[in-house]
Design a protein that fits this description.
two-stranded antiparallel ribbon, A middle domain of Talin 1, 425 residues, 3-stranded antiparallel β-sheet, 15 helices, 5 strands, mainly alpha, 56% helix
Length: 425
């Protein structure tokens, strides 16, 4: 089901119908929807490959816990985020993806459920009885009055018992962010410089720091295995005959196009501009950054935005630099309403430019959690520019929905954007 791959430079709109040899007027909705599914298959395949590379790096860390193997595992985690974040545009509109997503990318998390935390974290929470349960230190824990045997830390224990334990969303036990915490540890720097600084000896059997290194090793290994298994599941869902692809095909032309635009608009507005960016900016809270332990939030936001644009252009740049192209929503809209098609293309590009400015600042001036600090006017403005770009492109997405005569499509909202006073209540 995979389209041809073309070696190109950059992430722009250069690869379109001119490269595929398809005239805009000949692009059909069915072809656009099929290509959208093909790209999903490849994206999740790339995310799976990156997760397997991360798993291998974690195995190397556990075999020989040194500063070098820890840094290599962290680098593999960062690399794994690139293809996965570009797949998030499939979450909204595809119920199978949305139902699954919490297992791999839920945040923020009450990390005291998993491991030791600094005293500044606190010892209890009115909202979460497992706030400092520390399953790594405790072979049994109590959940809703029931004693749970946690003597063996396995993928099954994490997925079936610990993930959202007690029905509390903050009890994130699996996925990228649980692994991120285990590799970096807490970021105790607030809005100051620096990320988490967990020592490699936290995984040493000979020179253990912070206790329970054997169980910490078990947790990290099990969480990594579980991430691979979860991505294997979603990758299979997008192959020919897979549940996600079949559900998309059964939704018909209007349903398929609505799915693409729902994903673009909901991720642009309610999720990324609102819950992931504006909320943290309003609060000035470093705990509201997406990759808070590693200080990688700027990249996660950038690749979400890149994924939104890919859903429109049909152009996906793979980790090896090759590009996948095919019939796109951009082509379909250009045939229907060239002015709106051009407007949306320009808005998507402008958002990417604002995201790139944010990334450059993160790499040369200060991390994202410093940018959102109260009183940091320049940092705040850099983040707000990216938010503004996302809001503007959402308005163009809504005009595209109208131009394609798809009827009413409900996009995700956010109190952070729609009712900011409610955030402080």
């Amino acid at each position: 089901m995979m389209k041809s791959f073309i070696r190109l430079l950059g992430l722009g709109l250069a690869a379109s119908t001119a490269m595929t040899g398809i005239a805009v007027a000949d692009v059909t909705p069915e072809a656009v929807i099929a290509h959208y599914a093909d790209v999903a298959e490849v994206k999740y395949g790339d995310a799976l490959a990156a997760a397997r590379a991360l798993d291998a790096a974690i195995e190397a860390l556990l075999a020989n816990p040194t500063d070098d193997t820890l840094q290599a595992a962290r680098a593999s985690w960062l690399a794994a985020r690139v293809p996965y974040q570009q797949s998030e545009v499939y979450r909204f509109g595809n119920a199978i993806v949305d139902d699954w997503e919490g297992r791999v990318n839920a945040w923020p998390l009450d990390e005291g459920l998993i491991d030791y935390v600094d005293p500044s974290y606190g010892s209890e929470s009115d909202e979460n009885s497992l706030f400092t349960a520390n399953v790594i230190a405790n072979p049994s824990i109590e959940i809703n009055g029931k004693t749970i045997d946690a003597s063996r830390i396995t993928p099954e224990l994490i997925s079936a018992t610990l993930q959202e334990a007690g029905g509390i969303e903050a009890n994130v036990a699996s996925g990228y962010h649980a692994i991120e915490f285990l590799l970096w540890g807490q970021d105790l720097n607030g809005n100051g410089p620096g990320a988490g600084n967990r020592p490699a000896t936290d995984y040493s059997l000979d020179n253990c720091t912070n206790g329970n290194c054997d169980r910490r090793r078990d947790y990290l290994g099990a969480a990594s295995d579980l991430l691979v298994a979860d991505l294997e599941e979603m990758s299979a869902n997008w192959k020919a005959g897979g549940a996600a692809r079949v559900a998309l095909e059964k939704s018909g032309v209007a349903g398929g196009l609505s799915t693409i635009l729902t994903g673009m608009g909901s991720l642009s507005y309610g999720e990324l501009a609102g819950e992931r960016m504006k909320l943290g900016l309003l609060l000035g809270d470093p705990e509201e950054e997406h990759d808070c332990f590693s200080d990688n939030t700027h990249n996660s936001h950038r690749y979400d935005a890149v994924g939104i644009r890919t859903a429109y252009t049909g152009v996906y740049t793979r980790p090896d630099g090759s590009q996948m192209t095919g019939p796109s929503l951009a082509d379909l809209l250009a045939a229907k309403d060239p002015a709106i098609a051009q407007e949306l293309s320009g808005d998507l590009d402008a958002t990417i430019a604002a995201m790139e400015a944010m990334v450059e600042r993160a790499e040369t001036v200060e991390a994202y959690d410093q940018m959102i600090a109260v009183g940091n006017d320049e940092g705040n403005a850099t983040v707000q520019a990216a938010i503004d770009g996302l809001i503007t492109q959402t308005r163009s997405i809504e005009r595209a929905i109208a131009a394609l005569e798809l009827g009413a499509i409900e996009l995700e909202g956010s109190d952070s954007l729609d009712s900011p006073d409610a955030v402080f209540q």
